[in-house]
């Protein structure tokens, strides 16, 4: 039995002294109100109304039960209001800084369509898990090795000049004896300053004989991209989507496959599951995950 619905019918009928008017006030059919009151009487084992006259009146038992029934209905209404407010409460989510404003706007719009009032906070990878731990955000997209990831984002090298078809091999950046200009550098952005990306690139640079100065981590994406767009003709480690946004030529790294990996970290597993199930495709588009990227030349 729907106890709240039955009490709502009972209170509305008793307030108006009529099943017809009381049912209309409670926005239910008269037959529904009658069935609910009858079910409540059967549940309690006592009659709530005298039905001998055209206007229903409360029995002594009904008068005793009316105040508590009214409190139950008010509490149920308050619970509905609280639930609606909770659904509208901002969902604080820590995100990578490496994604575009347009992509972020689309993610927020997608979240709204799924009933999530997203309040994003873009921060470097080292800070995102800490914000979850300190409850400053409800969840975060944290950087993990691709083998542990829900979403993977392919990484390659982007340049301002067309490098030609095929991958870019880092060994071609090794300075030659006859080179008179500064050597070309590989620039990492903060999002890729994580062990499973940075350390692999560092080992590769050492293996192919690049100088230590030829690999650097920029303070932000704009600074990293400026080094590529400038006269030294550097290379930016980035995703295809980022290369497309910057109007750069993107190619995979010839010597090894690189990728960012992401999963959801949340204090409550229900929050993590909610993001994965409701916003999984939207988050993949936002990140530029495999199968969702594009725009690079």
TrEMBL record:
Pfam families: HTH_1 (PF00126)
PROSITE patterns, sorted: HTH_LYSR (PS50931)
Ranges in a coiled coil: none
Key word Transcription regulation present: yes
Keyword set, alphabetical order: DNA-binding, Transcription, Transcription regulation
UniProt source species: Streptomyces sodiiphilus
SUPFAM superfamilies: Winged helix' DNA-binding domain (SSF46785)
Limits of the HTH lysR-type domain: 1-59
Name of the protein in its database record: LysR family transcriptional regulator
Keyword Transferase: no
Family, as annotated: Belongs to the LysR transcriptional regulatory family.
Alphabetical list of InterPro entries matching this protein: LysR_HTH_N (IPR000847), WH-like_DNA-bd_sf (IPR036388), WH_DNA-bd_sf (IPR036390)
């Amino acid at each position: 039995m729907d106890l709240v619905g039955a009490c709502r019918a009972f209170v509305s009928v008793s307030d108006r002294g009529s099943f017809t008017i009381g049912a209309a006030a409670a926005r239910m059919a008269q037959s529904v109100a009658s069935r609910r009151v009858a079910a409540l009487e059967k549940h309690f084992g006592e009659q709530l109304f005298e039905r001998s006259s055209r206007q229903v009146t409360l029995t002594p038992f009904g008068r005793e039960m009316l105040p508590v029934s009214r409190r139950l209905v008010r509490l149920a209404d308050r619970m509905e209001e609280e639930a609606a407010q909770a659904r509208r409460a901002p969902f604080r989510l820590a995100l990578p800084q490496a994604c575009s404003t347009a992509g972020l706007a689309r993610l927020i719009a997608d979240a709204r369509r799924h009933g999530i009032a997203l309040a994003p906070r873009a921060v470097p990878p080292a800070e995102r898990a800490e914000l979850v731990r300190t409850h400053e955000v409800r969840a975060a997209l944290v950087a993990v090795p691709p083998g542990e990831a829900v979403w993977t984002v392919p990484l390659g090298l982007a340049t301002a000049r067309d490098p030609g078809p095929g991958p870019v091999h880092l060994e071609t950046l090794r300075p030659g004896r006859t080179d008179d200009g500064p050597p070309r550098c590989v620039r990492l952005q903060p999002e890729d300053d994580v062990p499973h990306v940075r350390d692999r690139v560092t080992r590769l640079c050492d293996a192919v004989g690049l100088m230590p100065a030829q690999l650097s981590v920029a303070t932000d994406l704009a600074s990293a991209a400026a080094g590529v767009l400038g006269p030294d003709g550097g290379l930016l480690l980035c995703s295809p989507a980022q290369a497309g946004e910057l109007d750069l030529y993107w190619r995979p790294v010839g010597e090894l496959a690189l990728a960012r990996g992401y999963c959801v970290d949340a204090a409550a597993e229900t929050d993590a599951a909610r993001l994965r199930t409701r916003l999984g495709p939207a988050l993949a588009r936002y990140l530029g995950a495999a199968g969702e990227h594009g725009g690079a030349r």
